[in-house]
Amino acid sequence: MKSQARVVIIGGGVAGTSALYHLAQRGWTDCMLLEMDELTSGSTWHAAGNIPTFSSSRNVIKLQHYSTQLYARLCNDPVYPINYHQTGSIRLAQTRQRMEEFRHVSAMANSIGLEYEVLDMGEMKARHPFLEDHDLKGALWDPVDGDIDPSQLTQALATHARKAGASIHRFTRVTGLSRTANGEWLVSTDKGDVIAEYVVNAGGYRGAEVTQLGGKFLPLVTMEHQYLVTESIPELEANDGLLPLGREPDDSYYLRQEKHALILGP
Fold it and tell me: What global pTM score does this model have?
């Protein structure tokens, strides 16, 4: 392991490897990622991997749209292909106010090149025959919504970052962070010390522990989230292709097909 780097990234999940990938792609190849265990061993391995573009912020829509374009390129890479399902999604509305929000967001998304559609009940049922329309006012169609395997995505980002010249050190625990006399960072690890110009904290739910190593406090609360996976369903086995991802913002859940079963995330 080198004793100097321009950037040290702490954390080997999807956020850390994405930061490493994007820095390397922009020419910052003197970058090093440190992971205390295996890549994706934090919350990344358990993420459901849904990839929306919907947001009430135009800038967030643009950012998420970039993600879908990046993942599509990574998916089609013959060297390291990954599983990425762009099934589209149907976002349900139970109220008139929700439909107004959908029209507003649809106008923002379509102004930057996405092809959102506001659906009536007939159009919704045509795209997802298993949805019921009880008490619904309508729905919103996001054509590039879908899901990706977070672990595969992390490994793909890491592979391309390494190819560009960046380095990754697994099973390397950061034990201390301090400033040197000239303002650089001294990153202490169980494999030796590294001097860095910049440090990126990508520790995820352990990010507060990383910050504490440098004597600072990061307000962070770890939330537990569960999702339910069903057994195989005969109707899905008989159905060709994958159903669109279902999203319900009023009751707050998503429902998507996983092989011939369903995942429900409340």
Answer: 0.93
